[in-house]
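User: Sequence recovery, please. Input:
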């Protein structure tokens, strides 16, 4: 077994959020000289008062030129009591970097994650990532990217709400950092002289934040009444808004497709 290679892989596992629980089994597989092997691990995450389980399967392979092993990718499955509602995705690892275990859970649970990425030419860029659309033949959804040109500012969106944690720069920075990792973040709303616990998550597609109460019920939904010449927003107007919103997202997809050499590497 190549000890330096083993130590490097252990370090990568740690920074990808898998800790050290796989280290012993990793060494055992490497010493056995297997050409390819998978290591399973299960993690538990909290969503409000609910516990959610994610099963991971990490894929390792041995170089054909030497005794070096590489972590190629891992498969993550967000379990559900109803099998047909399970969500899964393969996340690829590039030079030991990629979507972390917690970020994978957040993506599978429908949230967006902000990552530092590089293209094939090694040029750095930042983008929000979000799973979207139907699954392909490999059981994966498309990973849509919202680049800086999309104009989404999560901190600006947060300031539209009476959130207590935005009262100082340190708390604000910590809140933004957590949401950029895709976390569903608990916050305190100041409402009618009272403090109410809420949860917020980033929503780059709509350029805002989603807000939930303690029962995970989405807040501030629906169409607001227009008090101008028309008493309320008509059906055609609502449809036009949805069309405009879709066109904006499609425009981002078109621009991304024209940008050559984009490949995710966090």
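Assistant: Recovered sequence (266 residues):
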């Amino acid at each position: 077994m190549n000890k330096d290679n083993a130590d490097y892989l252990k370090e990568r596992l740690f920074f990808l959020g898998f800790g050290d629980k796989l280290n012993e089994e990793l060494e055992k597989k490497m010493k056995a000289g297997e050409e390819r092997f998978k290591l399973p691990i299960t993690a538990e995450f909290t969503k409000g008062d609910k516990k959610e389980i994610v099963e991971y399967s990490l894929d390792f392979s041995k170089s054909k030129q030497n005794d070096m092993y590489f972590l190629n990718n891992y498969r993550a499955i967000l379990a559900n009591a109803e099998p047909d509602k399970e969500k899964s995705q393969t996340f690829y690892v590039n030079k030991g970097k990629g979507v972390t275990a917690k970020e994978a859970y957040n993506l599978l649970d429908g949230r967006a994650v902000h990552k530092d990425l590089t293209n094939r030419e090694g040029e750095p860029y930042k983008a929000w990532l979000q799973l979207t659309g139907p699954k392909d033949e490999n059981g994966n959804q498309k990973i849509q990217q919202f680049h800086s040109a999309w104009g989404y500012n999560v901190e600006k969106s947060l300031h539209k709400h009476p959130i207590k944690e935005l009262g100082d720069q340190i708390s604000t920075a910590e809140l933004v950092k957590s949401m950029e990792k895709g976390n569903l973040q608990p916050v305190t709303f100041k409402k009618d002289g009272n403090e109410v616990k809420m949860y917020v998550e980033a929503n780059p597609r709509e350029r805002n934040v989603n807000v939930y109460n303690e029962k995970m019920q989405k807040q501030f939904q629906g169409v607001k009444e227009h008090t101008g010449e028309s008493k309320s927003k008509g059906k055609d107007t609502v449809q036009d808004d949805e069309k405009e919103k879709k066109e904006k997202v499609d425009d981002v997809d078109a621009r991304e497709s024209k940008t050559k050499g984009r490949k995710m590497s966090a």
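Helices lie at 3-15, 23-32, 101-108, 154-158, 169-180, 235-258.
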